[in-house]
Amino acid sequence: GAVVSQHPSRVICKSGTSVKIECRSLDFQATTMFWYRQFPKKSLMLMATSNEGSKATYEQGVEKDKFLINHASLTLSTLTVTSAHPEDSSFYICSALQGANEKLFFGSGTQLSVL
Amino acid sequence: DQQVKQNSPSLSVQEGRISILNCDYTNSMFDYFLWYKKYPAEGPTFLISISSIKDKNEDGRFTVFLNKSAKHLSLHIVPSQPGDSAVYFCAAKLIGNEKLTFGTGTRLTIIP
Fold it and tell me: Alpha-carbon distance B110 to B12, whole Å?
């Protein structure tokens, strides 16, 4: 099946720093990628929809200046958590839409811990 | 507002028996439903889906049932195997809209 690579898998950072998470579709082109966030024992919450070559569409309540999304190519989307704070600690997962059959493939997730 | 709910956070089933995972939704506009399986430190993987025009879809050991009037779907796994131990998420969407709304997940443990 299709593969989506997400990196890093785990990051620990100090409060106030910025963290970049990469999401790559390895064997298909993805014009649309999604970024989710999951708190412990909670559902996966969609943060934003990332479209190649255009601005991301953010869900209600998600700060676009806090969570910067860039989808510069058909195989790469990045999420940058700017000026991270402890409340940003969470599990972040990306997914990529394989256009031909509209299947969604997920990355392995990034556990962010902000000290 | 949790539009997709999985009221059982965990479930334990004996190996070889049937596992039944339940999911309820509140938005009657949803017309496509999916089940994903997630192992620790990995992203969810697609298992099976069903369109609202059907009430049952079967794929090997996995069967999904949809009761539109009750806004309820269930995933049946039979026979259950140790490798089925994972967290299962149900998700719902509108056809033509790529956005998924996920439930909170049910942790299934298969007891050997």
Answer: 6
Q: Which residues of B touch A46 (CB under 8 A)?
A: 99-101
| Binary contact (B4, A6; C-beta < 8 A) | no
| pLDDT average, residue stretch A56-85 | 93
Distance CA B105, CA B103 (A): 6
Residue of A nearest to B42 (CA): A108
pLDDT given at position B1? 67
pLDDT of A101 above 70: no
Distance of alpha carbon B92 from alpha carbon A104, whole angstroms: 13
Does residue A72 or residue B66 have the better pLDDT?
B66
Give the helix/strand (H/E) hosting B57: strand B56-59
Residue A27: pLDDT over 70 = yes
Instruction: Identify which of A97, A109, A111 has the shortest CB distance to residue B43.
Output: A109
Is residue A6 within 8 Å of residue A107, measured between CB atoms? yes
Interacting residues of B36 by C-beta distance below 8 A, sequence separation 6+: A106, B44, B45, B46, B47, B88, B89, B90, B91, B102
Query: Mean pLDDT across the stretch A60-69?
Result: 94
pLDDT at A1: 63
- Cβ of A49 within 8 Å of Cβ of B2? The answer is no
Put simply, the answer to whether B43 touches A41 (Cβ < 8 Å) is: no
In chain B, the percentage of residues whose pLDDT exceeds 90 is: 79
d(CA B49, CA B64): 7
